[in-house]
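FIELD: query
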Amino acid sequence: MGKIIREKLDLTPGFDMLHYMEIAGLPRMEEEEAARLAERAEAWSPALRGYRFDLGRRKGYALIYMDESVENDVEAAWQRSPSEGFSLHNLAIALVMGAAAQAVPEVADGGCAPLPQPDRDMLRQFKKLGLEWNPAGTVSRQYAVFTPLPYAGGCAVCMLKDSCPKSSL
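FIELD: result
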């Protein structure tokens, strides 16, 4: 395969209360909780990483993730209070998915970011970023999205299709 061009993405998803409530399964939210989450989202924004990998011939990938500091914050919150941990866990998911939707708008339309199987060259790119790929289909960050860019077909290209409830809908 040819040279992969890596470009840092400028992503600013911000706190979308309705998106957060959908992810958390909440029918409503108190104003002070929304303000607290918006403040935390702002504090976490420097920890959001996004990259576009151009493989040529209109083929590539987007990788978006929160760095380890966010994972540590969420873990500390779980230790203090399960409800706070759950809240921050959902916030991290909402921020990553919001950023993924910025990078690949079809992700928002379909509510899904298909997970491709990275080839050897992409595995090297993960290593260059200090990340590792797990053969089960995860990267070494808890809050991460790796998906084709431009968008490429949903379930047809997703390595999780056999285990995903959306693929059978």
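FIELD: remark
The beta strands are 5-8, 48-56, 59-66, 133-134, 138-139, 144-148.
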